[in-house]
Amino acid sequence: MTEQNSTQETQESGFSIQRIYVKDVSFETPNSPKIFTQEWDPDVNIELNTSSQLVAENVYEVSLRLTVTTKSGDQVAYICEVTQAGIFTILGLNGQQLQHCLAAFCPNILFPYVRETISSLVNKGSFQPINLDPVNFDALFANYLQQQAEQEQVADSSEILQ
């Protein structure tokens, strides 16, 4: 009987990668060629966003968008924006487990791909290499949950006062 239960659980839960692809890419050097003649003093700003959508039953597209804006002095040297996406089949997860998978686990899989694409584009733009630090998507998701709980607590408090 235990073997049947184990087999049934295996059939009911699962994770697989269907496809990983570049969904959108942009590289701009708005102040070239002048930026190449100035002293290089880079100031790097990184923006990171994730999103997901249901594509079919148990099939999700997860997108990870990274925007790297680098200035030298007060001039924008380059803006590199890459949206890396993946299609994932996720079985047997619900609620917060599914949210965690879509907001942390899948972006962890996508991040090395987006990091390599950005590094390659910056190199092709003839700028100094950029090495993006790893991102702890689990910590970002935990922070998101904490913020949601705090917002709900504030909303509950304001309802009580009214």
Automatic annotation (TrEMBL):
GO terms for molecular function: unfolded protein binding. InterPro entries: SecB, SecB-like_sf. SUPFAM superfamilies: SecB-like. GO terms for biological process: protein folding; protein tetramerization; protein transport. The lineage of its organism: Bacteria, Pseudomonadati, Pseudomonadota, Gammaproteobacteria, Orbales. Keywords: Chaperone, Cytoplasm, Protein transport, Translocation, Transport. NCBIfam families: PRK05751.1-3 (NF004392), PRK05751.1-4 (NF004393), secB (TIGR00809). This is Protein-export protein SecB. The gene is secB. Pfam families: SecB. Homotetramer, a dimer of dimers. One homotetramer interacts with 1 SecA dimer.
